Amino acid sequence: MHEKLIILDFGSQTTQLIGRRVRELNMYCEIVPYNKFPHDATDVKGVILSGSPYSVYDENAFKADLTEIRGKYPVLGICYGAQFLAYTSGGNVEPANSREYGRANLSHIDGEDELLKGIHVGSQIWMSHGDTITVLPDKFKVIASTDDVRAAAYHVEGEQTWGVQFHPEVFHSTDGTKLLDNFLNICGCAKDWTPASFIESTVAELKEQLGDDKVILALSGGVDSSVCAAMLAKAIGKQLTCVFVDHGLLRKNEREQVCEVFGEGGQFDINFVCVDARERFYSKLAGVTEPERKRKIIGEEFIRVFEDEAKKIGAVDFLAQGTIYPDVVESGQGGESAVIKSHHNVGGLPKDISFKGIIEPLRSLFKDEVRELGESLGIPEKLI
Questions:
Q1: Residue 285 near residue 293, CB atoms below 8 Å
Q2: Cα gap 147→154, rounded to integer Å
Q3: DSSP for 41-91?
Q4: What is the pLDDT at residue 235?
Q5: Which residues share a beta bridge with 41?
Q6: CA distance linking residue 16 with residue 20, whole number of Å
Q7: CB 51 within 8 Å of CB 17
Q8: Quick check: is 309 catalytic?
Q9: Is 167 a catalytic residue?
Q10: From the candidates 3, 29, 79, 100, which is the catalytic residue?
Q11: What is the mean predicted confidence (pLDDT) over 207-212?
Q12: pLDDT tens, 364-378?
């Protein structure tokens, strides 16, 4: 069981960015909806509260009960998260005279505070909020200010709880990563989560979970499915069959590249099937001009071709997919972030395809992490 940081998602557009910054610091984290804190988990080291499109005093604002979180774990509130902590502790949060948006500089810093270690006066930060904390509750002590915002950051005395009114996760906050690293140190995080350690633990889990079961994967040649195939190849070898469908809409030379890496004589010891279905797709798409209709036809036809191949292979226990973390979060399953789009990998399978289950080894990774993993697994750069 790996230690983790929990990011409670109050719906901000930058919640995923907080997650990526934490992962870049070699700490595993999970984004969960604001009201779904895993209270029974034993491996949580700390909690970050994200921003939100709402104001804390809105009727529709996302509200979370923090009574069992504060005091038990170190907590860092970012923007709305900071306002929510202050507001629910008896402070005042009110609309600012003008929306605080853009670059600002810290004009005062409490150099003794652990969260701000190594950050100096003049450090550039990024503001994006319409409200401001006008009265801080008792025991909430200002640890950083800008010329316009007195409570740019605070610490609650007697507990490991902090709030920052700015966004340390965005590029424009020059010492933002330093601040997040300081928070991880406060949490006592080992910061030993790397692509290499992920491969090792995931391959071990896959071996245990799958035993002698057979797995089929639709290999598209994209980075996600390629890395998924390489992970499974490492775990179960010939128990994996990859089906590559040439639907005639590929990038130049893509079919040749995929066959070279995963096919006969390639670097992975798996079963590989390449299906030339170009004419089948062309005839279905003939005369269709509407883009969304094309997408549906391609998606449905792909599944049918894949099903035909699966039947030829015979009994297969699991379907593998290259679903990655943004697919899960953006489809509304991982957090409160707006549902950005539906993904073919998340909930888009035909009802009449029967497997014991679905294997998604990359489900907890961001795209840049998948690329890093691909490099570690020796997949050629052109596929990554």
A1: no
A2: 16
A3: -S-EEEEEE---SS-TTSTT------TTTBTTB-EEEETHHHHHHHHTTT-
A4: 95
A5: none
A6: 6
A7: no
A8: no
A9: yes
A10: 79
A11: 93
A12: 999 999 999 999 998
Start-end of H helices in 157-314: 176-186, 195-210, 223-236, 254-262, 278-285, 291-313
3-state secondary structure (DSSP) of residue 26: coil
Cα 22 vs. chain centroid, distance in angstroms? 11
Mean of pLDDT over the chain:
89
Q: Which of the two residues, 96 and 127, has the higher pLDDT score?
A: 127
Residue 140 bridge partners (DSSP):
156
**Residue 153 has what pLDDT?**
97
Q: Are 275 and 246 in contact (CB under 8 A)?
A: yes
Treating both helix axes as pointing N-terminal to C-terminal, what angle do 367-376 and 223-236 enclose, rounded to 10 degrees? 50
How many angstroms separate the CA atoms of 156 and 301, rounded? 58
The pLDDT, as a whole number, for residue 158 is: 95
Query: Angle of helix 367-376 relative to helix 195-210, nearest 10 degrees?
Result: 80
Of the residues 169, 301, 330, 372, only one is catalytic, namely: 169
Give me the catalytic one of 29, 30, 129, 167.
167
Cα→Cα distances 332→18, 325, 335, 370, Å: 17, 11, 6, 21
Give the separation between CA 131 and CA 291, rounded to whole angstroms: 42
3-state secondary structure of 351: coil
Please say whether the beta carbons of 41 and 131 come within 8 A: no
Helix segments in 134-222, DSSP class H? 176-186, 195-210
373: helix, strand or coil = helix
- Nearest 5 degrees, angle CA 122-CA 123-CA 129? 110
pLDDT for 346 equals 41
The structure tokens 């598209």 sit at: 220
Q: Which CA distances in Å does 266 have to 65, 71, 197?
A: 54, 54, 25
Model confidence at 350: pLDDT above 90: no
Task: Clarify whether 242 is annotated catalytic.
Answer: no
Residue 383 structure tokens: 């596929």
pLDDT value at residue 349? 52
Q: What is the CA radius of gyration of the chain?
A: 24
Tokens of 270: 């798996």
- Residue 357 reports pLDDT greater than 90: no
- Please give the average per-residue pLDDT across 23-52, as a whole number: 94
At 131 the three-state DSSP class reads strand
Two tokens, residue 41: 């988990």
CB atoms within 10 A of CB 54: 18
Region 182-193: mean pLDDT is 96
**Chain segment 58-80, per-residue pLDDT in tens:** 888 999 999 999 999 999 999 99
> Does the pLDDT of residue 125 top 80, yes or no?
yes
* Residues 6+ away with beta carbon under 8 Å from 251: 221
